[in-house]
Amino acid sequence: MQRKITPLWGEKKVILRQTPRAVTPFGGLSVFIEFLGKIGFAKEISEHIPVHLKSPNAIDPAQTLTAFLMSVVAGARRFAHTTLLRADRALHALLGMKRFPSDDTIRNLFKRRHEADHRISAPAHHANLPQLCIFGLQTVTFTI
Fold first, then answer.
1. What's the whole-model pTM score?
2. CA distances, 115 to each of 4, 18, 32, 49, 66 (Å)
């Protein structure tokens, strides 16, 4: 069995197939990643996220937010739980991410009060995005 998907943050196709090698325990997220790709999640978040970093070494805030979302969907209950996904190179390939942010990077994204508050919203007129999705992790409530 073989299937091609397009990563959220990349151009190259990722081929999913059976292998005798080690695989990710988060392979089920591939369906959710494909859904996010279909609704244009990466493009919309990149355009509308109010946080902009200047360091050439910084991970794109849209990718950091995506890492947070993947962590919550995978069952993270604390920022520290995102470390489980950080070690999974197969998941990084599915997402098209070269680097997966640490729990501190994700936490700092939400601490940037001078650039944005904890509410990051997409335009209400966008037909492809759900009007309201709420994800909670520790004391942060995130609304799209």
1. 0.66
2. 38, 45, 29, 10, 19
